Amino acid sequence: MRNALGSVDTVLLLGGRSEIGLAIVERLVRDGARRVVLAARGAAGGTPPVIGDAEVHLVDFDAARPETHGEVIETAAKLVGDLDVVIPAFGVLGSQAAYDADPVAAAEAVAVNYGGHVSAGLSAARRLREQGHGTLVVLSSVAGVRVRRANFVYGSAKAGLDGFAQGLGDALHGSGARVMVVRPGFVVGRMTEGMSPAPMSSTPGEVADAVVAGLRSGAETVWVPGRLRWVFAVSRLLPRAIWRRMPR
Amino acid sequence: MTFLTGWGRTAPTPARLTRPRSAEEIAELVRQAPARGVAARGLGRSYGDAAQNAGGLVCDCTGLDTWSIDETTGLVTAGAGVSLHDLMAALVPRGWFVPVTPGTRHVTVGGAVAADVHGKNHHVDSSFGAHLRSLTLVTASGETRTVTPDGGRTVTPDGSGGGDGGDGGDGGDLFWATVGGMGLTGVITEAVFRCVPIETSRVRVDVERTRDLDQTLETMAATDDRYRYTVAWIDLLARGGRMGRSVLTRGDHAARDELPRGADPLAFNPGPVLKAPPWAPNGLLNPVTVRAFNEAWYAKSRPATGLIQGIAPFFHPLDGVDGWNRVYGSRGFVQYQFAVPFGQEATLRRIVARLSAEGVVSFLTVLKRFGPGTPGMLSFPIPGWTLALDIPAGRRGLARLLRGFDDQVAEAGGRIYLAKDSRTSAATVAAMYPRLDEWRRVRDEVDPAGVFRSDLARRLLL
């Protein structure tokens, strides 16, 4: 249960090796979370990482197999009880040039970045609604706020995900369960290794700090860094002719 | 679905709220309990999540509102939903007073049992559970059981008797698991307890001011036993040499000949009730306003002896402001109440010093000496000192501050009060309540499937 000061007891991380996801989990544990489920491909049977003094469970999870997602949620709930925070943190970035050359790969990436989140999100939402409490943290991206020429396959999946998350949040209103949409800018980390950081980039730790603060305050939307909210408020208004000249 | 919170107005969760009017109706609800279980609720004065049940059923027991008194013995038989206010309004004019009243009259008998509440007379009279003759509760099987403190034979309400359910014939275990058991052993439907005779509805009060914490503790230890009711209000914002300065108010029920001539000796007039504004800005209570309040309170509490006060202003000053919990703003507040055994005054001093140094904004911080506790397995009071304070929930760093206090209190062999808690951890409670496993065994026997659930129970893995 989330307590009076916004600390939680249990966390489920889908995409249990995600750098951002693990950074969030570490902070939640530091804040009082005691039971953690890390769900990742081929994870079951491995040695759980040490995260503070929390009890950590490993569960198999494949983002590309939506038919298994409901079961993963149920397994996690059996292991740790009510799920206070569920974080689907899986995803692939890929390059636009590679997607241009390989449409099948593009469709597969979208299936994970969008479709996988839809099935995982809906499965989690069903459980949270039954519980009458809990927060689904959806890691969207500014890439989906206004899709750019430079990464429109990834961006369009994030745009779909962002819309899905907002709709789901509204659908859950009044149930006690909530959705928090997180919109980071460029995150310097494993996923973006070798790329030169965009302006107003952040680190996985900074994203995690913002997520934890948002969970505490009960925010519906979190931008990382916060000033991207205003940057994108403006960018949404730019004419197409200018927007398409965005270098990246 | 209705969103519910405790008195602190934090962490709301939705539940199906129903208001049965009889034990039979409750038994039926329990037999058809939803997967998320059933929690009992009274007037919602627990500060945290004890009477919430996210996604499940919450049984508002205030419909169980009948009661009677045997005026030859003072024994009251009251439905779980009867409030102490209603009892006082009816009983005081007849010369009877409840054995224990907490700082508010607006609690139900069921809640008073489930939290094993204490009052200003704990040092001489112990807690509510000590005055109970029997309890009736609907258990997980839908059975109605009456249990007694000494494990006497359990009797069904129709008098057929004999059945003592599944706890090996010792109703005493179920009784003492229920007293202080936070409603998790069953839905309490009725209690029988002994009231005390009073000559008047007034209290003869002595007021004293102390200059610091040491003097407060010394004075209370030396002279509390001369009074039936005692409490100290601590000015937490006072620092340095004045740290822990307090106003001691101590009293006894006044005798008839102590009242002014012509006064109605047993009149019960709680006085006008002010309404707190429905909305208050976050941060209304800040170091400046609370310091001003504390200064004024300390200054106005002039030393006096033999003051004659009514029941309401003496026992329930905050009941004079309806909805006072709203002044903490939309984020609500937490109440931190702990007890440490005698001999662990160093822990108490350290915590008061830290609160004072941090400038924690709490008005009406209360210190009290506890006497012997009850055999309630999860009952809070232990012989020693208890401190209770309110803190706005939005305060930065509060979680860490209170976790630090938890560790010190546990280390000292003390505990925090579950009826006030809204933020501690399961491990902390396990460390503080040495009889938790014993309680769990009794509860598991009487409710093996976990029908009775609350947000508190989930949060603390009770």
Describe the 3D structure.
Chain A: Belongs to the short-chain dehydrogenases/reductases (SDR) family. Chain A: This is Short-chain dehydrogenase. Chain A: Keywords: Oxidoreductase. Chain A: InterPro entries: NAD(P)-bd_dom_sf, Sc_DH/Rdtase_CS, SDR_fam. Chain B: Residues 10-198 form the FAD-binding PCMH-type domain. Chain A is α/β, with parallel strands linked by helices and 248 residues long. Chain A is 43% helix and 16% strand. Chain A contains 8 helices and 7 strands; from the N terminus they run E-H-E-E-H-E-H-H-E-H-E-H-E-H-H. Chain A has helices at residues 19-30, 69-80, 96-101, 103-131, 152-172, 204-217, 228-235, 240-243; strands spanning 10-14, 35-40, 55-60, 85-88, 134-139, 177-184, 221-224. Chain B is an alpha+beta fold and 462 residues long. Chain B has a domain at 202-426: Vanillyl-alcohol Oxidase, Chain A, domain 3 (3-Layer(aba) Sandwich), CATH 3.40.462. Chain B is 25% helix and 24% strand. Chain B contains 13 helices and 21 strands. Chain B has helices at 23-31, 84-91, 109-114, 122-125, 171-178, 213-223, 287-300, 311-315, 345-358, 398-411, 426-432, 436-446, 455-460, and strands at residues 2-4, 13-18, 38-41, 57-60, 67-70, 75-79, 96-97, 132-138, 144-147, 187-194, 196-197, 202-210, 229-234, 246-253, 274-275, 304-310, 321-322, 333-341, 365-370, 384-392, 415-416. In chain B, the strands form 5 sheets. An 8-stranded antiparallel β-sheet of chain B has the order 16-12-14-13-19-20-18-21. A 5-stranded antiparallel β-sheet of chain B has the order 5-6-10-8-9. Chain B is globular and about 60 Å long. The chains are: A alpha/beta (248), B alpha+beta (462). Chain A binds chain B through residues 1-7, 9, 31-32, 34, 81-82, 129-133, 174-176, and chain B through 1, 3, 8, 10-15, 35-36, 48-49, 54-56, 332, 334, 393, 398-399, 402-403, 422-427, 455, 458-459.
